[in-house]
Structure formats: C-alpha cells, structure tokens
Amino acid sequence: MNLILQSLDADHSAIARIASLADATAEDISSGDRHAWRCADVAYSASLKALIDAACFGARIDCAWLPATPQLGDFKLLAMDMDSTLITIECIDEIADMQGLKPQVAAITEAAMRGELEFDESLTRRVALLKGLEASALQRVYDERLQLSPGAQSMLAAVKAAGIKTLLVSGGFTFFTDRMKDTLGLDYAHSNVLEIVDGKLTGKVVGAIVNAEEKKNTVERVCAELNIAASQAIVMGDGANDLSMMGVAGLSVAFRAKPVVREKASVALNFVGLDGILPILA
Q1: Which of 17, 55, 100, 113 is the most buried (most CB within 10 A)?
Q2: Any domain includes 127
Q3: Residue 65: strand, helix, or coil
C-alpha cells in the first residue's frame, strides 16, 4: 500500500516518526503550501493501519491508505456536499440564527449528521422552525456568513484543469447551491427548494427532499448523463446523509467529518484543506 501523509504545520519529526512505524521512508511530495509525504510499498495490515491512524490523528496529521496511487485524470466527476464540506457553515443553522433559534436547529442538524436522526424528519423539523422569517435573511447569510472551506479554490482549479465535471449535491437549499454554482462555475447543482410566500418562509420545502437516497441517485444520474461509471466519480461529504453517495464512488472523501463517515470513507481529511485530495491523486 501507499501511505500518504499530510500536515498543515509540516512537522518533519512527526512525519519521520509515523514513517518509522510503517517501516518506510517518507518521500517529500509537497507542492506550494501543501505539505505532503508518500511512504511507498508499505506492508499493510489492519493492525498497522489502526496504529498509524491513531498516531496521525493525535499528531494532527492526515493519512490516506491507497493500494495504488490513483491519478486525478482517472476520474471524470467530482460530487460535493455543500454545508460543512464545500463551505464552512450549515446554512440552515445560520438562517435559524436570524430567528434566535440557532441552538435548537443546530442540535437537530448535529444529530442528523451523526446519523442519529432520519434526515427527512430532521429537515422537516428544522425548516418548520423558520416559518415567518423574512426571505431576505437568506441573502444576509450568503453575504455575511458563507465562506468556502480551506483549499476549495485550489482544489476546484485543479479539478477543472483536469477536465473533471463538478456537481454540488446538498440537503441544503437552492438559494445557496445555485449561487455557488454560478460563482464557482460548477457544472451541476441539486438541493432542496424552500417555499417562500409574500416574501416570507412558510416553514415548508417544495417537492421531494434531497436526502441520502436522492443524493446517491443524483450522482448516478449525472454519471449516466456523462456516460461514465460511478467508479469514475470522487464524492466528498461530512455527514451520515452523504454515506450512500460516497458508497457508489470510486473515491470517497470525508472532510472534517463525523466519526461514522470517517470510518467508511476511502480517505479522511481531518486537518488539511479540500485540496488535500491533490497530493493523494498526484
């Protein structure tokens, strides 16, 4: 196996210590401000992986185990969750903050992302709490609070340069995904539609909810449209409702994710930015 190590602070002594656990030499494959190392031909075992994963997490180092080094050009689609993945916030939590209800809504969001609450129910409950809010609050959240996650711009630039199509698929709302699609030049976007009547939120979603199954179906539909296999897709997410679409991908990436998602993803980026996929796919 190849073991790819990444660190924001480039602690060479910690990298050397991890490499010694793998009985390997760490080759520096850093590029620009991305600090990365490759340990090639590591004699993989489940016990060694558990040891190194724990050591890396404790040292704030990201590690990725790959049977061979895949190339960015092997993939044709990048599908991304939006909230807490492509962007740093949960939009619905910030909308709720305009109503003074952020703690209540955020608690439901957190439970859903951990997989403790069924997503349709969680979204219905959270949106209902927004009833009566002026729709202008959505623009305020977009203007004042929405920020891209670290590394998003450089990741998207590299992905586009490689000719890979991009899909933003979210359990959030079209108000935000449509704007992100236009601003970032993404190819596809799919999310929920908030009902607005007379300039106010009604507390309802229009149409079917974009839940875990619909996220997976969306990835598969776009792959079919592009005439590619789902194995040619990279899927990035952070919550339990991303697991289904991550499960059909050729490479699944957990970004700053909940434990249940980290455990099942091909790669977990806990500390570096979204562009942490680039050394892995070099």
Answers
A1: 113
A2: no
A3: strand
Question: Do 168 and 50 fall into the same domain?
Answer: no
Do 250 and 153 sit in the same domain of this protein?
yes
pLDDT, residue 79, reads 98
Identify the pLDDT of residue 282.
79
Question: Same domain for 62 and 76?
Answer: no
**CATH at residue 226:** 3.40.50.1000
Tell whether pTM > 0.85. Answer: yes
Number of domains in the chain: 2
Note whether 241 and 212 are within 8 A (CB).
yes
Alpha carbons 151 and 208: distance in angstroms, whole number: 32
Assigned domain for 96 exists: no
Integer CA distances (angstroms), 197 to 62, 133, 139, 205, 208, in order: 46, 11, 16, 12, 18
Could you report the per-residue pLDDT of 143-174, keeping only the tens digit for each?
999 999 999 999 999 999 999 999 999 999 99
Pairing of strands 36-39, 27-28: antiparallel
Q: Is 93 a catalytic residue?
A: no
The yes-or-no verdict on residue 112 having pLDDT over 90 is no
Q: What is the pLDDT of residues 190-227, one digit of tens each?
A: 999 999 999 999 999 999 999 999 999 999 999 999 99
Check 33, 74, 81, 187 and give the catalytic one: 81
Do the domain assignments include residue 183?
yes
**CA-CA distances (angstroms) from residue 12 to 18, 27, 41?**
10, 11, 20
- Given a contact cutoff of 8 angstroms between Cβ atoms, the answer to whether 29 and 37 are in contact is yes
CATH number at residue 25: 3.30.70.600
83 is catalytic: yes
Assigned domain for 108 exists: no
